[in-house]
Amino acid sequence: MTPHYYHRTIYYADTDAYGVVYHGNYLAIFESARTEALHALGVSLIDLSDRLDCLFVARHVSLDYSGPLYLEDKIEVETRVAELRPTSVRYHQCIYKINQKETILTRLDIKLACIGKNFKLKAIPESLIAELSR
């Protein structure tokens, strides 16, 4: 997949009392970026779930924090597919401040497994594999 770039502002709800992004909120930021990357490919999560019985669940997550994000920072999240397997996809994601793109502040490596509504592992639909391979 060609990298996707998601731009966002850090909001008050993302931060703690000191105006620093709370560590758990990085996962939500990264998930929003992955969702927007799929939307950019024309993929609907509702369609995947309802029509193709395809849900993605986190199987492994690795986060590396190199520097803080603060209230009202403007950020860019780079998302790319690192590995695509029949029943899983692994993404690499990085967060940069817009005006400091040379410095990666946070890295995420996440492996998502494809399951059906019965919670059993299943193959990723061919149509999605085709989109993610572009």
Primary descriptors:
single chain, 134 residues, alpha+beta, Thiol Ester Dehydrase, Chain A, 5-stranded antiparallel beta sheet, 3 helices, 5 strands, 36% strand
Alpha-carbon distance between the two ends: 5 Å
Largest sheet: 5 strands, antiparallel
Q: What would you call the shape? A: elongated
Low-confidence stretches: none
Care to count the β-strands? 5
CATH topology-level fold name? Thiol Ester Dehydrase, Chain A
Assign the structural class, choosing from mainly alpha, mainly beta, alpha/beta, alpha+beta, or little secondary structure.
Answer: alpha+beta
Task: Give the % helix.
Answer: 10-25%
Q: List SSEs in N-to-C order.
A: EHHEEEEH
Brief rundown of the structure:
With 134 residues, this protein is α+β, with helices and mostly antiparallel strands. The chain has 3 helices and 5 strands, in the order βααββββα.
Textual characterization of the structure:
The radius of gyration is 16 Å and the shape is elongated. It has a five-stranded antiparallel beta sheet with strand order 1-3-4-5-2. Helices cover 22% and strands 36% of the residues. The chain is built from three helices and five strands, in the order βααββββα. The protein has a single domain, classed as Hotdog Thioesterase (Thiol Ester Dehydrase, Chain A, Roll). It is α+β, with helices and mostly antiparallel strands. The longest helix has 16 residues, at 25-40.
Write the layout of secondary structure elements.
Layout (H helix, E strand, L loop, with lengths): L3 E6 L15 H16 L4 H6 L4 E11 L8 E11 L3 E10 L8 E10 L10 H7 L2
Antiparallel strand pairs: 1-3, 2-5, 3-4, 4-5
